[in-house]
Write a structure and sequence with these properties.
The strands form two sheets. The chain has a three-stranded antiparallel β-sheet. A three-stranded antiparallel β-sheet has the order 5-4-6, covered by helices on one side. The protein has 19 helices and six strands. The chain has helices at 25-38, 73-82, 103-118, 123-133, 137-151, 156-161, 164-167, 169-180, 184-240, 247-261, 263-281, 284-294, 300-319, 327-336, 340-356, 361-368, 373-385, 388-435, 446-458; strands at residues 2-9, 15-22, 42-48, 50-57, 64-70, 86-92. The longest helix is centred in the middle third of the chain and has 57 residues, at 184-240.
């Protein structure tokens, strides 16, 4: 999260200051330009919040070094001087790169916080305990700043949202909301459950897709090396004696020649589309397209789709408090899925229909086209009986059980398929190699000379 402080002058000459944040420098500047144009302001000063390294000492004590975030160097100097320190130096940190904490660190923080809240500890005490025990520097610094801002009376939701880059958008929103709600413990428990489930699913999905993909890629490179280099060196020896090659050997040699003669063209034809697709996937339309295609992947797509519904239902259950306030829980639940296509359908189809036409939750969900018939049926029943909140939890638990069971079966199936593909490739290579043993020179008396030549060649 990028934070800027600006000073601007209005039409009457009055200086106005403010602070704004954005997920990136580009977004923060876009927000600032909107503020300036809307209020007819002239920008006078723009300062980005950065990290400063300092060294101070007090009397004859040993010098102390540290790091502090501020909008400029003088702020750090003034703050340290007020504390009675003699400033040795304050320098802006050259590489102000902050790595996002591992997902497990975030899960541990939320889960431990939920347990301590359940034991009736105050949130200030919990933050102090976790700051001292947290090993990850990025998370520890973020918790320190959050604790300080909350002690100054800042709005908890806006404070946590400023640290989306650390916690993630959904987690930051939920933790900020929890501090303002009357069920802080429940929201922390639900967030911890969601994060654990998300982490478990991602780990299982990586096992189901990434490991096989790497195996196939390495096998592909091995085959290319054999066909492009090892095999031709052997096969060309036969051509020197004008020996007719068997079908598989001849085809493999021609294919090898095609690869070596057109290696640059082949690399370009592979790399350019890959780079183009990667760039397209980073755009809004590209992300929508790829996230939509994810749901149509054979075998795995249906699993991903049901997991998205599970996440939606779990978050909706946590936030929903009544039919009069269903819009915001639906919006936040759609964002929590992490799928742009799913989120877009909810925000651009379901929510507008609920607001403009006043239709119910079930009808709006059905119109969005991203919910299964089972989910629609269960929500319809829950809406009729007034138990839609509990229905959402039941659906989440049902899809969790189903996806966990099916994912294990899919992983086993993919492993069998990979083993079969590897076996087929190895058999093909063995057949091609073995076929060369059937080659014999046409001219009588050449066999012994040919064999001696081959032996001398390899020696």
């Amino acid at each position: 999260m990028v934070e800027y402080r600006f000073s601007a002058e209005n039409v009457s000459g009055k200086i106005i200051s403010g602070v704004l944040t954005g997920d990136s420098v580009k977004e923060a500047k876009r927000k600032l330009n909107g503020i300036l144009q809307k209020n007819q302001l002239t920008l006078k000063l723009l300062e980005k919040k950065s990290s400063y390294l300092y060294k101070v000492k007090k009397g004859g004590d040993k010098p102390i070094t540290g790091e502090q975030k501020a909008f400029n160097k003088q702020e750090v100097v003034d703050a340290l001087s007020k504390l009675g320190y003699e400033v040795v130096y304050v320098n802006k940190k050259l590489l102000d790169f902050v790595a996002k904490p591992p997902a497990q660190e975030i899960v541990s923080f939320v889960k431990i916080s939920a347990e301590l809240l359940d034991q009736k500890l105050s949130y200030g005490e919990i933050l102090t305990l976790l700051i001292n025990d947290t090993q990850n520097k990025t998370l520890r610094d973020a918790l320190k700043e959050i604790n300080n801002e909350l002690k100054r009376g800042s709005d908890s939701q806006s404070v946590f949202l400023r640290y989306q880059s650390v916690f993630g958008k959904f987690t930051a929103y939920m933790l900020g909301l929890a501090s303002k709600s009357g069920n802080m413990t429940e929201i922390y428990k639900a967030t911890a459950k969601f994060l654990e489930r998300q982490q478990e699913f991602n780990r299982s999905l990586r096992s189901a897709l990434i490991t096989p993909a790497v195996t196939i890629f390495v096998l592909f490179l091995a085959v290319l090396y054999y066909v492009g280099y090892i095999f031709p060196e052997t096969a060309k020896l036969f051509l020197r004696f004008d020996i007719e090659l068997p079908p598989m050997t001849a085809f493999t040699l021609k294919f090898s020649g095609f690869l070596t003669d057109n290696v640059i063209i082949i690399l370009i034809s592979v790399l350019i589309p890959a780079v183009a697709l990667w760039q397209f996937s980073r755009t809004t339309n590209g992300k929508l397209f790829f996230h939509k295609m994810m749901l149509k992947i054979p075998i795995v797509g249906n699993l991903i789709h049901k997991t998205l519904i599970e996440v939606f239902c779990r978050v909706f259950y946590t936030l929903y408090s009544g039919s009069a306030e269903s819009i915001e829980p639906i919006r936040i639940a759609s964002e929590a899925t992490g799928n742009s296509y799913f989120e877009s359908k909810i925000k651009n189809v379901a929510i507008p229909m609920m607001i403009q036409k006043g239709i119910g939750v079930t009808e709006a969900m059905e119109a969005s086209g991203v919910f299964t018939e089972t989910a629609i049926s269960r929500f319809h029943s829950g809406e009729e009986t007034g138990t839609i909140k509990n229905t959402a939890l039941q659906l989440a638990n049902y899809y969790e059980s189903e996806t966990v069971f099916r994912l294990k079966n899919i992983i086993e199936l993919i492993q069998i398929i990979i083993a079969m593909v590897t076996m087929v490739v190895m058999i093909a290579l063995t057949l091609v190699s073995a076929e060369t043993a059937t080659i014999r020179p046409k001219t009588p008396g050449m066999s012994e000379f040919f064999i001696n030549y081959i032996q001398n060649f390899f020696v």
